[in-house]
Structure formats: structure tokens, C-alpha cells
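Help needed: design a sequence for this.
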């Protein structure tokens, strides 16, 4: 697949135009003030840091590298990253099939 400079310029503009609409459409999910069922017990019992006992040793490592071991709530950040990846992959798929 050949990608030229116009490809990235046009897709960057579409991305910046589309992302706010996707964020507004998912605003209720982003602002929700409750945990998922599997996260609730883990946060209340272990403080969300001891993930290795649940088979997630790399989650512990990644979390300690990001926060230096201090508990910080990243809750909407991962969802915003996922939404931006969703928008970008949709733009790439539309471009490939157009």
C-alpha cells in the first residue's frame, strides 16, 4: 500500500474533526462514577496495585513505571486513548477501502 504526504495531512484533519464528536457521544461513559464488577473488588481489597496475584504481573510493572508506586486514578485516560485509536483505525479503514 502506497502512502503519500497528502494521506497523512488529510487524515490528520479528519481525525481532529471527528474525535470531539466521538468524545461527546461517549461522554456519559467517560464521566460515570462506578467501577466495573471485576475492578471493584480489586480496588477495594488491594488498592489496585497488587495485580500480580490475579495473573497480571505486567500490569503491576507498567503501573509502577508510570506512577512510581503512588496510587493515581487514570480512569478516563485509557478510555480517551481507546477512543482516539478507534477513530484513527476507522479513518485508515475508510481510506484503504475508498
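Sure. Designed sequence:
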Amino acid at each position: 500500500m502506497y502512502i503519500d504526504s497528502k494521506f497523512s495531512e488529510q487524515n490528520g484533519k479528519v481525525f481532529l474533526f471527528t474525535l470531539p464528536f466521538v468524545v461527546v457521544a461517549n461522554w456519559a461513559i467517560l464521566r460515570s462514577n462506578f467501577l466495573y464488577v471485576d475492578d471493584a473488588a480489586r480496588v477495594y481489597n488491594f488498592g489496585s496495585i497488587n495485580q500480580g496475584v490475579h495473573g497480571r504481573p505486567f500490569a503491576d510493572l507498567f503501573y509502577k513505571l508510570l506512577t512510581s508506586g503512588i496510587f493515581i486514578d487514570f480512569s478516563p485516560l485509557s478510555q480517551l486513548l481507546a477512543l482516539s485509536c478507534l477513530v484513527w483505525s476507522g479513518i485508515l479503514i475508510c481510506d484503504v477501502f475508498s
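Residues 11 and 91 are 7 Å apart (CA to CA).
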